[in-house]
Specification:
Layout lengths: L1 H19 L3 H13 L7 H14 L3 H13 L4 H15 L4 H18 L1
Amino acid sequence: MELVEEFNDYRAKMNEKILDGNNVVLKRLFNLDTNAFSPGELDKKTKELIGLACSMVLRCDDCVKYHLGKCHEAGLNKKEVFEAFSIANLIGGTIVIPHLRRAVEYWDALEQQEA
């Protein structure tokens, strides 16, 4: 649970500092990201699974944690998330396995918050 809180606290603190810099390009980039993951032709769950798989293939642990949190909030279950993990590892290859380990650890922490 501490793993989740530390990540979320740090992310919120740094995003605030970034946005306080009042840079129009960065603000627009953040807004674009928010809008891209809003429901449209694809529902939120599908978009978060795509974001998760892409983040794993790109090997961005912060991005993986972020999308895992959003998947959890959207009500995705462990089997759905693990299916996305399998696709990401198939596309990304064995180099993604270390990120898979950290992703499973983070998913477990998210599930423990419910208990």
